[in-house]
Amino acid sequence: MTYHGLAPGPRLLVLGAVHGNEVCGARAITQLIEELDSGALAIERGMLTLVPVTNPLAYQRKQRMGDRNLNRNMAPSAIPQDFEDRIANVLCPLLDSHDALLDLHSFHTGGLPFVMIGPQNNQGELEPFSRAAEEMQLALHTGPHRIVEGWLDAYAQGVQRRAAAPTQREAAVPRRW
Ligand SMILES: [Zn+2]
Question: 13-27, pLDDT tens digit by residue?
């Protein structure tokens, strides 16, 4: 669902339920669509695209993923191998045609909402980025309790550690009798 303001402005994409069992984003987006359609809210400028359920297979199954975790690997593929490959082929052009992404996830424990941002501007291989200032503005406008930075580097280090020592984790698990 895409809404346009009459004045030019940023193009924002908002995704819910990338993980199918995290439904708060889907609920919030559905409510927002109702408010926009009823005229209770209006887009003044730019463009807003709302995707309440990004991974319908996972959502339908009420589980984190369909065939695999969309959040860990998302790139277009000429020959899709699984359901998430096909989602990526729709989602990647959609991402390309927007300036910013707000990706809504849920936690299964309580607590106040927070925003994860990053990386910092860089020209590296993992995730080159040049919109850190705009991203911080977007994060601040969501009115968060906390903003978390640097998670991508921490995640990449964790992946490297597991790849380097795949048996260490198992060795640390206490034996069950
Ligand atoms: Zn999630």
Answer: 999 999 999 999 999
